[in-house]
Amino acid sequence: MKLLLIAVTGLLLTTGAIAGTPDQEAHVRLAIQSFYDAFNSHGFEHAENYTTEDWNHINPGGGRTEGRASVLEELHEVHATFLKGVSDTIEGMDVRFAAPDVAIATVRSRMSTFTTPNGTRHINEGHIRTFVVVKRGQRWLIMQDQNTTIGG
């Protein structure tokens, strides 16, 4: 039995398998839900409670914005214009731990109808977003996200 325990432990260490506790996963999910709540309220208030100062955002068009202040500036701009009143609803989320203090989450969501500045109308569009969430002190915070359109 002892030999089996040693073998399993060794296998887990060599495969890099890391499991977060249910409490850790709940905190990661809370940070991500806070982002979606802020998206849907269009204010992104208290972003420091769910994002790191060095947060990076990659939008569906492939643009990358670095740093919380710059990301918030971009988000306020698009939410004051073509995303004004648009909602994004989580349809599914999975969370995996890359390290005890790093989680990767994949979120499938659906956005309400909107029209981009180039005149393209997006109706009930699906999105998939990948989040890198890190533990800083006692809090889990979004460090990076990438949003990809996956269609209707």
Give keywords.
disordered N terminus, alpha+beta, 3 helices, 8 strands, 6-stranded mixed β-sheet, single chain, 152 residues, Nuclear Transport Factor 2, Chain: A, two-stranded antiparallel ribbon, globular
What topology does this entry show?
Elements: H1 2-15, H2 22-41, E1 51-58, E2 64-66, H3 68-80, E3 88-99, E4 102-111, E5 114-115, E6 121-122, E7 126-136, E8 139-151
Parallel strand pairs: 1-8
Antiparallel strand pairs: 1-2, 3-4, 4-7, 5-6, 7-8
Model description:
- With 152 residues, the protein is an alpha+beta fold.
- It has one domain (21-151): Nuclear Transport Factor 2, Chain: A.
- It has 3 helices and 8 strands.
- The chain has helices at 2-15, 22-41, 68-80; strands at residues 51-58, 64-66, 88-99, 102-111, 114-115, 121-122, 126-136, 139-151.
- Strands 2-1-8-7-4-3 form a 6-stranded mixed sheet.
- The longest helix has 20 residues, at 22-41.
- The chain is globular and about 45 Å long.
- The tally of helices reads 3
- How many β-strand runs? 8
Quickly give the structural class: alpha+beta
Strand content: 35-45%
Integer tally of domains? 1
- Report the average pLDDT across residues: 90
Percentage of helical residues?
Answer: 25-40%
Low-confidence blocks of residues: 3-15
CATH classification class:
Alpha Beta
- Give the second-level CATH assignment, the architecture: Roll
